[in-house]
Each structure stands twice: as structure tokens, then as C-alpha cells.
Amino acid sequence: MSRIRILPDQVANQIAAGEVVERPSSVLKELVENALDAGARHIEVAWEEGGKRLLEVADDGSGMARDDLYLALERHATSKVRTAEDLGHLGTFGFRGEALPSIASVSRFDLTSAEAEGAGHRLRCEFGVIKEVAPVSRSRGTTVTVRDLFAQLPARRRFLKSTDTEHAQLWGAVARLALSAPGVHWVIRPDRGAPLVLPPVEDAGLRLAPLLGDKLGRLVPFVNGERPWQVRGFVSPPDLSFRDRNHLYLFVNGRAVRDRLLLAALSEAWSGTFAKGSYPAAVLFLEMPPEAVDVNVHPTKAEVRFREPQRIFAWVRSGAEEAWAKLRGGLASVLELPPKPLEAEFELDPSRRAAPQHPRLWSDHSGGALGAYQTQTETFDTRPLDTIYAYEPTPTGVSENLEERSEIRYLGAFQRTYLVAEITTSAGPELWLVDQHVAHERILFERLFLRRHAPAIQPLMPPQVVQLGPEAMARLSPFLGELGAVGVEAEAFGADALVVRGLPDFLADRDPQALLEDLLARLEREGRVDLDVFRRDLNAELACRAAIKKHHALPSDLALGLIRDLLACEVPNTCPHGRPIIKKLTLDDLDRSFGRRV
């Protein structure tokens, strides 16, 4: 007797359901995507008990004929793919032909559809067995009703979460679907709370507040590139952040996705703008030719594979980085920074320091206020503040507005580390605690970062041979041309080594082997070397090393100068490594904490 046998269709469908139908929200996603593929301009969604008892999606799409109702419950039956070549340029959401039969096999399933006004049919199916098909009167479109999900599969039903959790998951799915289709009229009817009606809009930004909350209604739009290659969307300003990544929404050609490459690109883009451990909110729409992305790599189509991942990584990162740079006022590219030794910027003797270069924060008095900070001893320059430097507010940008609206009264220091100040703005008084070390670090970093000049190549004398091993050498070889283009002069030296003859000047003191290993990791991930990232990291390291440390007492005039300089920075809220600089308490916060009426 043969050990191998063909599974019955009902069992095969239930196995497929384990991949396609994870929970009620995945059912909702599949049904709504079918409606969008059918050209629906009006979609209504309803559910009860988190979708476990009832889930219904109705649309005004193209509808189906009577015979199509039967075919729709056959595995691998689809109207969206004809040949294998079609898989290379998919432009629809659903194409596998597995969703409806999988859902019908694990629920009580009703499918009602009509191609023309009044002439419709209803198919009733229970856990994979068709019970009846009967004519009904319905306007053009389709309604799918799913009841008692997993009722005959108690093991699967036990894996569902609480009704509250499933309810939240359904709202998350609705939010992504409605953001991806702003031109569709939506009506969402949950069994708790009032229905949500979303009229069609031209811009997805008008959907942010009703779907994601008022906070995310503050996101700022941006566009980078032109179709068919365009990244657009909305990002949170530097003062709006969260403790998790749950406010990142990614779409590729209208499809909501989870993608590690895109998340890594975003993470690099927001580095230095948000504090470490804080995450921005972002809604990103990537538009690209269908053949540039493979959506057929995951059963639920939640993940994609890009044909040129390195290109996509650099493209998304630069687009988002530019968006956040505009929000924080913009910083000069470090590709334009000077090749001169940076350590000279941190001479502690004011008489030995060059005149300050910062175009916004300092004018040329006796070396600037920063030169007066004595970080190695407990002695301080106690000259009057106006003889040390003259503060010049920025002519444009965020820092100008902050400074013009602010009055600063220095109150003292706590533990010779945290400066305490009263800041009066147009919004009212605030009590600030400022970490003096990271504040000074931010100021020094921006002084370095804003200098303009192109890096030079410094020859290594003698050239250095770096043993990488054959495996690493094989991975690095395709990128030798890319290394040369950014100033790393290296060539193969046998099958397992490189000889390095020159480096960009700001990397010349780095260990060549560690540098090449870092470059290799970045090249394989991004396909290019970003000197901005290297220079930014180096400047951040030097600024941290030279900044005044904690437990160093500052006289009041220098502490006040430090706070003023911080207010004039492009990014005053975080240090270059992402640590917070300022903690703020409003008068309302204090009154509330002491039980006063606000």
C-alpha cells in the first residue's frame, strides 16, 4: 500500500489557511484587497467580538457572476494572473487564489455578488462545504460575511488573542488599508464605539488624524523623486517621538509591508535627530515599477524582495534624511567639510584657538564663549559675558524663532551637572534641566559639522597591507571601484589581502583593517559608501571627548552662555549620539503635580 496520498481539498485548504489566515485582521486584509482589486470606490467593514464572531466586507466593485462564485472557492483560481510572465510585474494586491478558499474552509462563509444592478447570487459555505447558491437582489458589487472563525478548529482558535487585542489588530489593518487607498469612501462599523466614515480625499495626509490620532496629524509631508521612482510620505518633527516603532507605516506600490531593509534605512535617516531609545512616526509610500519589486515571497504578501536592495536602501534613506533635515533647519553636508585637523577646534587655551567659524552662533571676540570653558581644572574665565562673545541670533530657521520668543533666567546647577533655567516663551514659562555635557557636545558638533570644504586624500607612507582572508576578500572585490571613488585607494594583494595606499584625510588615523571591515558591511548593505556617516560619527566622537564633563562647576555667565548657544543650535534637543539634552516642565505640569487646579 502506498505511503503517499493526495490530501482532500478541505484538508489542503485548512492547511493553506494556516499560512494565509493568521487572525481576523488577516481575513480583513485579504477581503479588502480583493475589493480594491475589483475597482471598489465604496467599502464598508463591520466586525463583532474582534472579528471572531463576525467579519463583513461589502464593496461596489465589479462583482462576480454565478459561476464565478464556485470558482472563487477553488484553490489557485484567480482573475489577476494568466501566465508565469505576469508574476514579474504584478500590479494587484491578490493573485495567489488561496485567500477565499482558505477563509471558507475555517468559517461559516457567505459570498454575495452581482455584476449588474439587482441580478446577484449568494453562496453559502460552512467550513469548506458549499451548502447552497441562490439568486438574490443586490446592487453591483460583492459582500463577504465570515462568521465563527476557527469554530471547528479549537486548537487554532485558542491561539487567537483576547477580543480587545483582536479589535486593536483590526483597527491597525483598517488604518493601513485606508491610508493606501485615500480615494475610496470608507465606512467602518465596529461593535464598540461609533462608526467611522472616511470620505474620499486626494491626499493621504488628510487621513492621518482620523485614523492614527491627533498627534500623528502633525506629521509633515515630503516628496523625493518623480514617478515611477518616488518616495513620499509624512514624518514627525523632532519634538514628536515615541518609545517604540509602532508608528512606522511602510507602503510599496500601495501595499502595506514589513521590511527590515526599509526600517534600517529609516533608522539611519533619523539618527541624531531623535534621542536614543526614541522613535519617530513616519508614513512612507514607495512608488516604483512593478518589475523592480517581487511581492510573491510571502504567503500573506506582507514582505517583499527588491531587485536592487542596495539602491533602494540608499534612495529611501536619503529621501527620509532630507525630510528630517528640513524639519530641523538643515545642516551642511559633511562632504563639504574642511580636511584640516579637527583637534585644533578643542584647544583649551583661548589664546591658541582660531577665530570661530560657526556662521550662526558666534562672532569673533576672544575665541568665543566655548573657549572660556576650562574642562580640565576647576578654574574658570570669569570675564563679563559680553567681553567673551557676542550672541547673534540666526537669520532664519527654527533656532531663530526659538531664540526670539525666549527669555532665559539661569537659576543654578544641580550636582554641578544639570543646569536649571526658567525659559519664558510665547506659550508660557517652562522649567528646564539641561545636561551640560551633552549640551556642549551638541554645540561643538555643529561647529564642526557646519564648516565647508571637501575632504582630501592622504597617502599612507608606507602603504599598509591588510589581511582580510579569502572569504572577506571575495566579498570586497566587487566594490574596489566604489572604494576608490570615495578616496580609499586600495588594490588586491593576492587572494586574501589588500594594499591600502591612501585614505580620506579624516579617516587616516583609523586602523585600516577595522575601517575596511566596516566599509565592507556598509557596502554590502547599501551598495555605496556614505562619507557623511563616517564624518558625522567622527565629529560626534571628538565633540564628546572635548565637551565639558559632569561635576564641573560653571559660573553663571558661562552657564547662561551655554544655554543660549544651545538654543541657537539646529538640533537643540539631542546630542549627536541621540541622547536627550533638555528635560522640560511647564507651569501646568508643576501645578498638576502639586494638586493645584490647572
UniProtKB/TrEMBL annotation:
Keyword DNA repair among record annotations: yes
Domain annotation MutL C-terminal dimerisation: ranges: 410-554
Top-level taxon of the source organism: Bacteria
PROSITE patterns named among the record's database cross-references: DNA_MISMATCH_REPAIR_1 (PS00058)
Domain DNA mismatch repair protein S5 span(s) in chain numbering: 208-325
Cited Pfam families: DNA_mis_repair (PF01119), HATPase_c_3 (PF13589), MutL_C (PF08676)
Entry keywords, A to Z: DNA damage, DNA repair
Described function: This protein is involved in the repair of mismatches in DNA. It is required for dam-dependent methyl-directed DNA mismatch repair. May act as a 'molecular matchmaker', a protein that promotes the formation of a stable complex between two or more DNA-binding proteins in an ATP-dependent manner without itself being part of a final effector complex.
Family to which the UniProt record says this protein belongs: Belongs to the DNA mismatch repair MutL/HexB family.
Protein name: DNA mismatch repair protein MutL
The species this protein was found in: Geothrix limicola
